[in-house]
Amino acid sequence: MKKQIAILGSTGSIGTQALQVIEEHPDLYEAYALTAHNKVDLLIQQARKFMPEAVVIVNEEKYPRLREALSDLPIKVYAGEEALCQIVESAPIHLVLTAMVGYAGLRPTINAIRAGKAIALANKETLVVAGELINNLANQYHIPILPVDSEHSAVFQCLAGEMGNPVEKVILTASGGPFRAYTLEQLRTVTKEQALHHPNWSMGAKITIDSASMMNKGFEVMEAKWLFGVRPDQIEVVVHPQSVIHSMVQFQDSAIKAQLGMPDMRLPIQYAFSYPDRVKSSFERLDFSKCTNLTFEQPDTKRFRNLALAYEALRQAGNMPCIVNAANEMVVAAFLRDEISFLGMSEVIEQTMRKVGHIRIPTYEDYVATDAEARRKALELIGRNRY
Ligand code: NDP
Ligand code: MG
Protein backbone atom coordinates (compact mmCIF):
# COMPACT_ATOMS: atom_id res chain seq x y z
CA MET A 1 0.00 0.00 0.00
CA LYS A 2 1.30 3.45 -0.88
CA LYS A 3 1.98 5.80 2.01
CA GLN A 4 -0.53 8.67 1.91
CA ILE A 5 1.22 11.92 2.73
CA ALA A 6 -0.17 15.36 3.56
CA ILE A 7 2.28 18.16 2.82
CA LEU A 8 1.58 21.33 4.79
CA GLY A 9 3.42 24.05 2.89
CA SER A 10 3.84 22.21 -0.42
CA THR A 11 4.77 25.45 -2.25
CA GLY A 12 7.83 26.14 -0.08
CA SER A 13 11.43 25.00 -0.26
CA ILE A 14 10.85 21.81 1.79
CA GLY A 15 7.41 21.23 0.26
CA THR A 16 8.62 21.30 -3.36
CA GLN A 17 11.55 19.01 -2.51
CA ALA A 18 9.15 16.61 -0.77
CA LEU A 19 7.15 16.45 -4.00
CA GLN A 20 10.35 15.58 -5.86
CA VAL A 21 10.82 12.66 -3.46
CA ILE A 22 7.25 11.51 -4.09
CA GLU A 23 7.79 11.87 -7.83
CA GLU A 24 10.88 9.69 -7.62
CA HIS A 25 8.95 6.95 -5.77
CA PRO A 26 5.43 6.80 -7.22
CA ASP A 27 5.27 3.15 -6.14
CA LEU A 28 5.79 4.06 -2.46
CA TYR A 29 4.27 7.48 -1.80
CA GLU A 30 1.22 9.47 -2.77
CA ALA A 31 0.40 13.12 -2.02
CA TYR A 32 -2.99 12.96 -0.30
CA ALA A 33 -3.26 16.66 0.54
CA LEU A 34 -1.29 19.75 -0.47
CA THR A 35 -1.55 23.09 1.28
CA ALA A 36 -0.20 26.58 0.64
CA HIS A 37 -0.57 30.05 2.06
CA ASN A 38 -0.42 32.44 -0.92
CA LYS A 39 1.20 30.82 -3.94
CA VAL A 40 -2.00 29.74 -5.60
CA ASP A 41 -0.57 29.29 -9.10
CA LEU A 42 2.10 26.90 -7.92
CA LEU A 43 -0.47 25.01 -5.85
CA ILE A 44 -2.66 24.64 -8.96
CA GLN A 45 0.28 23.28 -10.95
CA GLN A 46 1.18 20.85 -8.17
CA ALA A 47 -2.43 19.68 -7.82
CA ARG A 48 -2.76 19.03 -11.56
CA LYS A 49 0.46 17.05 -11.53
CA PHE A 50 0.11 15.04 -8.31
CA MET A 51 -3.69 14.70 -8.24
CA PRO A 52 -4.10 14.84 -4.45
CA GLU A 53 -7.44 14.10 -2.81
CA ALA A 54 -7.58 17.64 -1.42
CA VAL A 55 -5.87 21.03 -1.53
CA VAL A 56 -6.07 23.90 0.96
CA ILE A 57 -5.15 27.53 0.38
CA VAL A 58 -4.86 29.38 3.67
CA ASN A 59 -5.40 32.85 2.20
CA GLU A 60 -9.16 32.75 1.56
CA GLU A 61 -8.99 35.50 -1.07
CA LYS A 62 -7.27 33.03 -3.39
CA TYR A 63 -9.97 30.39 -3.01
CA PRO A 64 -12.13 31.35 -6.06
CA ARG A 65 -9.11 31.19 -8.37
CA LEU A 66 -8.06 27.79 -6.97
CA ARG A 67 -11.56 26.32 -7.18
CA GLU A 68 -12.06 27.59 -10.71
CA ALA A 69 -8.68 26.30 -11.93
CA LEU A 70 -9.30 22.79 -10.56
CA SER A 71 -13.01 22.57 -11.38
CA ASP A 72 -12.45 19.93 -14.07
CA LEU A 73 -10.72 17.59 -11.60
CA PRO A 74 -12.08 15.46 -8.74
CA ILE A 75 -9.93 17.33 -6.18
CA LYS A 76 -11.57 18.76 -3.07
CA VAL A 77 -10.70 22.43 -2.64
CA TYR A 78 -10.74 24.22 0.71
CA ALA A 79 -9.57 27.54 2.14
CA GLY A 80 -8.60 29.02 5.49
CA GLU A 81 -6.70 28.12 8.63
CA GLU A 82 -9.51 25.98 9.99
CA ALA A 83 -9.54 23.84 6.84
CA LEU A 84 -5.78 23.35 7.16
CA CYS A 85 -6.24 22.15 10.74
CA GLN A 86 -9.00 19.75 9.70
CA ILE A 87 -7.48 18.28 6.55
CA VAL A 88 -4.70 16.57 8.55
CA GLU A 89 -7.34 14.47 10.32
CA SER A 90 -8.53 12.74 7.10
CA ALA A 91 -8.63 9.00 7.68
CA PRO A 92 -6.43 7.78 4.76
CA ILE A 93 -3.44 9.98 5.70
CA HIS A 94 -0.50 8.03 7.19
CA LEU A 95 2.02 10.82 7.53
CA VAL A 96 1.87 14.61 7.79
CA LEU A 97 4.92 16.58 6.64
CA THR A 98 4.85 19.91 8.48
CA ALA A 99 6.70 22.13 6.02
CA MET A 100 5.05 25.45 6.69
CA VAL A 101 6.99 28.20 8.33
CA GLY A 102 6.57 29.59 11.85
CA TYR A 103 4.15 29.40 14.76
CA ALA A 104 1.30 28.66 12.32
CA GLY A 105 2.49 25.04 12.33
CA LEU A 106 1.56 24.43 15.96
CA ARG A 107 -2.19 23.87 15.75
CA PRO A 108 -2.24 21.61 12.66
CA THR A 109 0.58 19.54 14.19
CA ILE A 110 -1.39 19.08 17.40
CA ASN A 111 -4.45 18.07 15.40
CA ALA A 112 -2.48 15.61 13.30
CA ILE A 113 -1.03 13.93 16.40
CA ARG A 114 -4.49 13.71 18.00
CA ALA A 115 -5.74 12.10 14.79
CA GLY A 116 -3.01 9.46 15.07
CA LYS A 117 -0.85 10.60 12.13
CA ALA A 118 2.90 10.14 12.07
CA ILE A 119 4.67 13.51 11.85
CA ALA A 120 7.60 14.29 9.57
CA LEU A 121 8.65 17.50 11.27
CA ALA A 122 10.32 20.26 9.28
CA ASN A 123 8.46 23.06 11.08
CA LYS A 124 10.92 23.35 13.96
CA GLU A 125 9.06 26.36 15.40
CA THR A 126 6.40 23.94 16.68
CA LEU A 127 8.93 22.19 18.93
CA VAL A 128 10.59 25.48 19.89
CA VAL A 129 7.28 26.98 21.01
CA ALA A 130 5.67 23.98 22.68
CA GLY A 131 8.13 21.08 22.76
CA GLU A 132 6.88 19.69 26.04
CA LEU A 133 3.24 19.75 25.01
CA ILE A 134 4.02 18.14 21.63
CA ASN A 135 6.16 15.43 23.26
CA ASN A 136 3.48 14.63 25.81
CA LEU A 137 0.84 14.39 23.10
CA ALA A 138 3.06 12.25 20.87
CA ASN A 139 3.68 9.88 23.81
CA GLN A 140 0.01 9.77 24.71
CA TYR A 141 -1.04 8.93 21.13
CA HIS A 142 2.05 6.76 20.40
CA ILE A 143 2.99 8.93 17.45
CA PRO A 144 6.51 9.04 16.01
CA ILE A 145 7.96 12.50 15.35
CA LEU A 146 10.41 11.97 12.51
CA PRO A 147 12.92 14.78 12.09
CA VAL A 148 13.36 16.43 8.69
CA ASP A 149 15.81 19.13 9.76
CA SER A 150 19.12 17.89 8.33
CA GLU A 151 21.00 18.01 11.65
CA HIS A 152 18.29 16.13 13.52
CA SER A 153 17.88 13.63 10.75
CA ALA A 154 21.65 13.05 11.00
CA VAL A 155 21.39 12.46 14.76
CA PHE A 156 18.36 10.22 14.22
CA GLN A 157 20.33 8.18 11.67
CA CYS A 158 23.30 7.92 14.06
CA LEU A 159 20.94 6.59 16.73
CA ALA A 160 19.60 3.78 14.56
CA GLY A 161 20.63 0.47 16.13
CA GLU A 162 21.70 2.16 19.40
CA MET A 163 18.55 1.44 21.41
CA GLY A 164 19.45 1.34 25.10
CA ASN A 165 22.87 2.98 24.64
CA PRO A 166 22.83 6.30 26.49
CA VAL A 167 23.83 9.37 24.52
CA GLU A 168 26.56 11.46 26.12
CA LYS A 169 26.37 14.35 23.72
CA VAL A 170 24.58 15.49 20.59
CA ILE A 171 26.89 17.57 18.39
CA LEU A 172 25.02 19.81 15.97
CA THR A 173 27.03 21.19 13.09
CA ALA A 174 26.41 24.73 11.84
CA SER A 175 27.61 26.20 8.56
CA GLY A 176 28.06 29.56 10.26
CA GLY A 177 26.05 31.24 7.50
CA PRO A 178 27.14 34.06 5.21
CA PHE A 179 28.55 36.21 8.07
CA ARG A 180 30.67 33.58 9.79
CA ALA A 181 33.88 35.56 9.36
CA TYR A 182 32.39 39.06 9.82
CA THR A 183 33.47 41.30 12.70
CA LEU A 184 30.88 42.83 15.00
CA GLU A 185 31.54 46.15 13.26
CA GLN A 186 30.80 44.63 9.85
CA LEU A 187 27.64 42.96 11.19
CA ARG A 188 26.20 46.38 12.08
CA THR A 189 25.60 47.28 8.46
CA VAL A 190 24.81 43.99 6.70
CA THR A 191 21.73 44.05 4.47
CA LYS A 192 18.91 41.60 3.90
CA GLU A 193 20.29 40.91 0.40
CA GLN A 194 23.56 39.75 1.96
CA ALA A 195 21.75 37.77 4.65
CA LEU A 196 19.52 36.04 2.10
CA HIS A 197 22.55 34.61 0.35
CA HIS A 198 23.32 31.37 2.22
CA PRO A 199 26.60 29.71 1.23
CA ASN A 200 25.43 26.04 1.24
CA TRP A 201 21.63 25.75 1.35
CA SER A 202 18.77 27.20 -0.67
CA MET A 203 15.84 27.68 1.75
CA GLY A 204 12.82 29.89 2.45
CA ALA A 205 13.51 33.52 3.42
CA LYS A 206 12.71 33.21 7.14
CA ILE A 207 15.02 30.27 7.85
CA THR A 208 17.74 31.84 5.69
CA ILE A 209 17.73 34.95 7.90
CA ASP A 210 17.61 32.69 11.00
CA SER A 211 20.68 30.89 9.66
CA ALA A 212 22.57 34.14 9.11
CA SER A 213 21.74 35.28 12.67
CA MET A 214 22.38 31.81 14.20
CA MET A 215 18.85 31.81 15.65
CA ASN A 216 18.29 28.77 13.47
CA LYS A 217 21.02 26.92 15.38
CA GLY A 218 19.54 28.10 18.68
CA PHE A 219 16.18 26.70 17.61
CA GLU A 220 17.87 23.47 16.57
CA VAL A 221 19.37 23.11 20.05
CA MET A 222 15.83 23.34 21.46
CA GLU A 223 14.55 20.95 18.81
CA ALA A 224 17.29 18.44 19.74
CA LYS A 225 16.33 18.60 23.40
CA TRP A 226 12.76 17.56 22.66
CA LEU A 227 13.48 15.07 19.90
CA PHE A 228 16.25 13.19 21.65
CA GLY A 229 15.53 13.76 25.35
CA VAL A 230 18.91 15.30 26.13
CA ARG A 231 19.71 18.15 28.53
CA PRO A 232 20.89 21.51 27.12
CA ASP A 233 24.42 20.88 28.49
CA GLN A 234 24.53 17.69 26.40
CA ILE A 235 24.01 19.62 23.17
CA GLU A 236 27.09 21.15 21.57
CA VAL A 237 27.22 23.35 18.49
CA VAL A 238 30.26 23.14 16.22
CA VAL A 239 30.74 25.41 13.22
CA HIS A 240 31.59 23.34 10.17
CA PRO A 241 31.47 25.62 7.13
CA GLN A 242 31.47 22.86 4.48
CA SER A 243 28.14 21.33 5.67
CA VAL A 244 29.36 17.82 4.83
CA ILE A 245 28.96 16.35 8.31
CA HIS A 246 25.30 16.97 9.06
CA SER A 247 25.63 16.24 12.79
CA MET A 248 27.03 13.72 15.28
CA VAL A 249 26.31 11.71 18.40
CA GLN A 250 28.85 10.90 21.10
CA PHE A 251 28.21 7.81 23.23
CA GLN A 252 29.38 6.99 26.77
CA ASP A 253 32.34 4.94 25.53
CA SER A 254 33.62 8.12 23.74
CA ALA A 255 32.74 6.88 20.25
CA ILE A 256 31.35 9.54 17.93
CA LYS A 257 29.07 8.64 15.02
CA ALA A 258 28.42 11.11 12.21
CA GLN A 259 26.21 11.24 9.15
CA LEU A 260 27.77 12.76 6.04
CA GLY A 261 26.52 13.68 2.61
CA MET A 262 25.92 16.44 0.12
CA PRO A 263 23.80 19.31 1.46
CA ASP A 264 20.50 18.16 -0.07
CA MET A 265 17.28 18.30 1.95
CA ARG A 266 15.69 15.59 -0.15
CA LEU A 267 17.65 12.95 1.77
CA PRO A 268 16.31 13.81 5.25
CA ILE A 269 12.82 14.26 3.76
CA GLN A 270 13.03 10.85 2.11
CA TYR A 271 14.40 9.20 5.25
CA ALA A 272 11.46 10.56 7.25
CA PHE A 273 9.14 9.08 4.62
CA SER A 274 10.89 5.70 4.38
CA TYR A 275 11.99 5.21 8.03
CA PRO A 276 13.03 2.66 9.23
CA ASP A 277 13.92 1.57 5.68
CA ARG A 278 16.28 3.27 3.29
CA VAL A 279 15.22 3.52 -0.32
CA LYS A 280 17.27 4.12 -3.44
CA SER A 281 17.78 7.70 -4.56
CA SER A 282 19.27 9.53 -7.52
CA PHE A 283 20.68 12.31 -5.29
CA GLU A 284 24.26 13.41 -5.88
CA ARG A 285 26.86 11.34 -4.01
CA LEU A 286 29.61 12.85 -1.90
CA ASP A 287 32.90 12.83 -3.80
CA PHE A 288 35.82 12.68 -1.37
CA SER A 289 38.30 13.71 -4.04
CA LYS A 290 36.52 17.10 -4.06
CA CYS A 291 36.06 17.47 -0.32
CA THR A 292 39.57 17.46 1.02
CA ASN A 293 39.21 20.06 3.72
CA LEU A 294 36.71 19.59 6.53
CA THR A 295 37.14 22.26 9.19
CA PHE A 296 35.64 22.98 12.61
CA GLU A 297 35.36 26.14 14.73
CA GLN A 298 33.73 27.17 17.98
CA PRO A 299 30.60 29.34 17.59
CA ASP A 300 31.05 32.93 18.74
CA THR A 301 28.12 33.98 20.91
CA LYS A 302 29.47 37.53 21.23
CA ARG A 303 28.94 38.21 17.55
CA PHE A 304 25.94 35.88 17.28
CA ARG A 305 24.00 36.62 20.46
CA ASN A 306 20.93 34.74 19.33
CA LEU A 307 22.63 31.45 20.10
CA ALA A 308 23.25 32.56 23.71
CA LEU A 309 19.66 33.85 23.96
CA ALA A 310 18.34 30.49 22.78
CA TYR A 311 20.36 28.59 25.42
CA GLU A 312 19.11 31.09 28.03
CA ALA A 313 15.50 30.53 26.91
CA LEU A 314 16.02 26.79 27.15
CA ARG A 315 17.43 27.18 30.66
CA GLN A 316 14.45 29.29 31.77
CA ALA A 317 12.11 26.88 29.96
CA GLY A 318 8.29 27.20 30.29
CA ASN A 319 6.99 29.79 27.83
CA MET A 320 10.40 31.49 27.34
CA PRO A 321 11.22 29.69 24.06
CA CYS A 322 7.74 30.67 22.83
CA ILE A 323 8.55 34.33 23.65
CA VAL A 324 11.84 34.07 21.75
CA ASN A 325 10.14 32.48 18.76
CA ALA A 326 7.42 35.15 18.57
CA ALA A 327 9.90 38.01 18.94
CA ASN A 328 12.12 36.39 16.33
CA GLU A 329 9.27 36.05 13.82
CA MET A 330 8.53 39.76 14.26
CA VAL A 331 12.13 40.94 13.93
CA VAL A 332 12.85 38.74 10.92
CA ALA A 333 9.75 40.09 9.15
CA ALA A 334 10.88 43.63 10.06
CA PHE A 335 14.43 42.95 8.84
CA LEU A 336 13.00 41.73 5.53
CA ARG A 337 11.10 45.08 5.30
CA ASP A 338 14.32 47.00 6.12
CA GLU A 339 12.80 48.23 9.39
CA ILE A 340 15.45 46.90 11.76
CA SER A 341 19.18 46.32 11.59
CA PHE A 342 20.78 42.88 11.71
CA LEU A 343 22.13 43.31 15.25
CA GLY A 344 18.94 45.11 16.31
CA MET A 345 17.12 41.79 15.92
CA SER A 346 18.94 40.27 18.93
CA GLU A 347 18.37 43.47 20.96
CA VAL A 348 14.60 43.30 20.46
CA ILE A 349 14.46 39.57 21.21
CA GLU A 350 16.40 40.04 24.45
CA GLN A 351 14.19 42.94 25.57
CA THR A 352 11.03 41.03 24.69
CA MET A 353 12.26 38.14 26.85
CA ARG A 354 12.36 40.55 29.79
CA LYS A 355 9.00 42.16 29.12
CA VAL A 356 6.68 39.16 28.82
CA GLY A 357 5.68 37.28 31.97
CA HIS A 358 7.31 33.90 32.54
CA ILE A 359 5.03 30.89 32.96
CA ARG A 360 6.74 27.76 34.24
CA ILE A 361 4.27 25.13 33.05
CA PRO A 362 2.21 26.65 30.23
CA THR A 363 -1.00 25.20 28.82
CA TYR A 364 -1.88 25.45 25.13
CA GLU A 365 -3.90 28.60 25.91
CA ASP A 366 -0.89 30.09 27.70
CA TYR A 367 1.23 29.54 24.59
CA VAL A 368 -1.38 31.29 22.43
CA ALA A 369 -1.53 34.25 24.84
CA THR A 370 2.27 34.37 25.20
CA ASP A 371 2.75 34.35 21.43
CA ALA A 372 0.31 37.27 20.99
CA GLU A 373 1.79 39.27 23.87
CA ALA A 374 5.39 38.74 22.75
CA ARG A 375 4.51 39.81 19.19
CA ARG A 376 2.90 43.01 20.52
CA LYS A 377 5.89 43.83 22.70
CA ALA A 378 8.40 43.11 19.95
CA LEU A 379 6.46 45.23 17.48
CA GLU A 380 6.40 48.14 19.94
CA LEU A 381 10.16 47.87 20.35
CA ILE A 382 10.71 47.70 16.59
CA GLY A 383 8.41 50.73 16.15
CA ARG A 384 10.67 52.84 18.38
CA ASN A 385 13.10 52.50 15.54
CA ARG A 386 16.26 52.62 17.61
CA TYR A 387 17.62 49.34 16.40
P1 NDP B 1 9.28 28.48 2.71
O1 NDP B 1 9.10 29.90 3.10
O2 NDP B 1 10.05 28.16 1.49
O3 NDP B 1 7.87 27.77 2.60
C1 NDP B 1 6.91 27.89 3.60
C2 NDP B 1 5.63 27.17 3.19
O4 NDP B 1 4.66 27.38 4.21
C3 NDP B 1 5.02 27.69 1.91
O5 NDP B 1 4.34 26.64 1.29
C4 NDP B 1 4.03 28.75 2.40
O6 NDP B 1 2.98 29.00 1.51
C5 NDP B 1 3.54 28.09 3.67
N1 NDP B 1 3.10 29.03 4.70
C6 NDP B 1 3.69 30.20 5.05
N2 NDP B 1 3.00 30.78 6.05
C7 NDP B 1 1.97 29.98 6.33
C8 NDP B 1 0.89 30.05 7.25
N3 NDP B 1 0.74 31.09 8.08
N4 NDP B 1 0.00 29.04 7.26
C9 NDP B 1 0.13 27.99 6.44
N5 NDP B 1 1.11 27.87 5.53
C10 NDP B 1 2.03 28.84 5.49
O7 NDP B 1 9.93 27.76 4.00
P2 NDP B 1 10.88 26.49 4.05
O8 NDP B 1 10.35 25.41 3.18
O9 NDP B 1 12.29 26.92 3.87
O10 NDP B 1 10.74 26.07 5.58
C11 NDP B 1 9.59 25.41 6.08
C12 NDP B 1 9.87 24.92 7.49
O11 NDP B 1 10.89 23.95 7.42
C13 NDP B 1 10.37 26.01 8.44
O12 NDP B 1 9.88 25.76 9.72
C14 NDP B 1 11.88 25.84 8.43
O13 NDP B 1 12.48 26.25 9.62
C15 NDP B 1 11.98 24.32 8.25
N6 NDP B 1 13.24 23.88 7.62
C16 NDP B 1 13.54 24.24 6.35
C17 NDP B 1 14.72 23.84 5.74
C18 NDP B 1 15.02 24.19 4.32
O14 NDP B 1 16.02 23.69 3.78
N7 NDP B 1 14.23 25.01 3.65
C19 NDP B 1 15.70 23.03 6.49
C20 NDP B 1 15.26 22.67 7.81
C21 NDP B 1 14.08 23.08 8.34
P3 NDP B 1 3.09 30.04 0.24
O15 NDP B 1 4.48 29.90 -0.29
O16 NDP B 1 2.05 29.51 -0.67
O17 NDP B 1 2.79 31.39 0.73
MG1 MG C 1 18.94 22.55 10.01
Distance between the termini: 55 Å
Shape: globular
CATH superfamily caption of the largest domain: RNA polymerase sigma factor, region 2, helix turn helix motif
The topology string of helices and strands comes to EHEHEHEHEHEHEHEHHHHEEEHHHHH
Number of domains: 2
The chain-level mean pLDDT equals 97
> Any guess at the CATH architecture of the largest domain?
Orthogonal Bundle
Bound ions, cofactors and other small molecules, one mention each: NADPH dihydro-nicotinamide-adenine-dinucleotide phosphate, magnesium ion
Number of strands: 11
Short description:
The protein is an alpha/beta fold. The protein folds into two domains: 3-147, NAD(P)-binding Rossmann-like Domain (Rossmann fold, 3-Layer(aba) Sandwich), CATH 3.40.50; 152-261 and 300-383, RNA polymerase sigma factor, region 2, helix turn helix motif (Rna Polymerase Sigma Factor, Chain: A).
Task: Describe what you observe in this structure.
A 7-stranded parallel sheet has the order 4-3-2-1-5-6-7, with helices on both faces. The chain folds into 2 domains: 3-147, NAD(P)-binding Rossmann-like Domain (Rossmann fold, 3-Layer(aba) Sandwich); 152-261 and 300-383, RNA polymerase sigma factor, region 2, helix turn helix motif (Rna Polymerase Sigma Factor, Chain: A), CATH 1.10.1740.10. The protein is built from 16 helices and 11 strands. Strand 6, helix 6 and strand 7 form a beta-alpha-beta unit. The chain has 387 residues and is α/β, with parallel strands linked by helices. The structure holds NADPH dihydro-nicotinamide-adenine-dinucleotide phosphate and magnesium ion (MG). NADPH dihydro-nicotinamide-adenine-dinucleotide phosphate (NDP) binds at residues 9-15, 36-39, 58, 99-101, 104, 122-125, 149, 201, 203-204, 206-207, 265.
